[in-house]
Write a structure and sequence with these properties.
- Helices cover about 30% and strands about 25% of the residues.
- It is α+β, with helices and mostly antiparallel strands.
- The chain folds into two domains: about 5-235, Nucleotidyltransferase, domain 5 (2-Layer Sandwich); about 245-429, ATPase, nucleotide binding domain (Nucleotidyltransferase, domain 5), CATH 3.30.420.40.
- The longest helix is centred in the last third of the chain and has 25 residues, at about 360-380.
């Protein structure tokens, strides 16, 4: 890293667009975030794609203004399975950005006749409406604006990071790294390329998709500043958390939660878990990650507030300490991800007494989340992939009470990301 230079890190997430300016010594010099509106109606969850773009550019410009002329590069990570379709001439989105949480394309996923085992062997994922292929098919068949752009040869399609980079570079860079490409359910982790058979199965023309490149490299520039990284949020979390060696594990507690286990350079087929491609460098082999998602983490506490159980998430440790008898809560908001993959399940609340208070509900929710994540890590261990070291990142990792309970049920220490040795020194300059 160049001396006295600043890196601006961008994170376009499910609820916020963020920008952080970091000095060469690793100190945060500036940070800014802007909320994004996830529109939910039944099974439909989507965004105004322009809002994703404009909020990210606004916090980026604020960071640039704060950093002055001392900026070395921009690095970007974004939510992975949210998909955007836009016009290659105007840059305008042709329909809403369909969130990874959206379930409207369930019929398209179910209509695909190929077995889950074949899909998993090729893509490392499972055939569900949460990944992009059925969402793209739904858009192609339900939005006349998308159909018209396809006929006119003007349709582009990609995950959020691709959409942002395309706009940041004035349309010069239309690319995706393997980490984001994989979440489209169209990418073969063995050939590291788009899979022709799956593309045909979902009737998705390959020319609307971005070229595949490394996570770290030349992603063009924004206002003269090089963009040197574009990847998925969980892959970025894995690197920053320090899971750089086989056996390293990270738990990222965001809007959803993810258990990520480095299994080395050989992909594994573990039924019930995803096999994800790591952050990649040009000319170097990627490592693979066994990944287990929990659909709701931070969103659980937003949901409790929406139910009228009012509290500030910053007070979780004090709330947990005040709980006398935590309720038994199965926090299946949005169903259950790994290793059961049952999206029909609903949250279950039990163990109440006349003395139960809201603190007991909140503490029980914290514990329920930890149990779901422990199930994933223990399931991987039973398949022969033991987590030797566990790191934690994401907003909820600020809660010492949550991490202590997680460590207790896993029977191993957990290192919060701020204490990890890994830093932004992995960036290529």
């Amino acid at each position: 890293m160049m001396k006295n230079k600043i890196i601006i890190a961008l994170d376009q997430g499910s609820s916020l667009s963020r920008a952080v300016a970091v000095g060469a010594d690793g100190k945060v010099l500036h940070k800014k975030s802007a909320p994004v509106n996830l529109r939910v109606k039944g099974a439909e969850c989507d965004y105004d794609a322009n809002e994703l773009l404009q909020t990210q550019l606004k916090v980026l410009d604020d960071a640039i203004a704060a950093a002055g002329n001392n900026i070395a590069a921009i690095a970007l990570c974004a939510q992975r399975s949210t998909i955007v379709l836009w016009d290659s001439f105007t840059g305008a989105p042709l329909c809403p950005a369909i969130s990874w949480l959206d379930g409207r394309a369930a019929q398209y996923a179910a209509a695909d006749m190929r077995e889950q085992g074949l899909i998993h062997a090729k893509t490392g994922l499972y055939k569900t409406p949460y990944y992009s292929a059925p969402k793209i098919q739904w858009c192609l068949q339900n939005y006349p604006s998308v159909q018209d752009a396809l006929k006119a040869g003007r349709l582009l399609c990609g995950p959020v990071a691709t959409f942002l980079v395309w706009h940041m570079t004035g349309g010069k860079v239309f690319a995706v790294d393997a980490a984001n490409a994989q979440r489209m359910l169209l990418f073969n982790i063995k050939t590291m390329a788009w899979d022709e058979e799956i593309l045909k199965s979902f009737n998705i023309p390959p020319h609307i998709l971005p070229r595949i490149t490394a996570s770290a490299g030349d992603w063009g520039s924004y206002k003269g500043i090089p963009i040197t990284v574009a990847t998925g949020d969980q892959q970025a979390a894995a690197v920053v958390s320090g899971i750089l060696k086989q056996g390293d594990c990270a738990i990222n507690y965001g809007t959803g939660a993810f258990a990520l286990l480095n299994i080395g350079e050989t992909a594994a087929d573990v039924r019930g878990l995803l096999t994800s491609v790591s952050f990649t460098y040009a000319g170097k082999k990627p490592y693979f990650i066994l990944e287990g998602p929990v659909n709701a983490a931070g969103s659980l506490f937003m949901w409790l507030n929406a139910l009228g159980i009012n509290f500030d998430a910053k007070d979780l440790d004090n709330i947990y300490a005040a709980a006398k008898m935590p309720a038994q809560i199965y926090p299946a908001l949005g169903g259950i991800g790994a290793p059961l993959w049952d999206f029909t399940l609903k949250p279950v609340f039990a163990g109440f007494t006349p003395d139960s208070r809201k603190e007991d509900i909140i503490a029980g929710t914290m514990q329920g989340l930890c149990f779901l994540l422990a199930d994933i890590i223990n399931y991987a261990a039973a398949a022969g992939f033991k987590a030797e070291r566990v790191h934690a990142s994401g907003g909820l990792s600020a809660s010492a009470a949550l991490l202590k309970f997680q460590a207790d049920i896993l029977q191993r220490p957990i290192i919060r990301a701020a204490q990890c040795v890994a830093s932004i020194s992995f960036l290529p300059f």
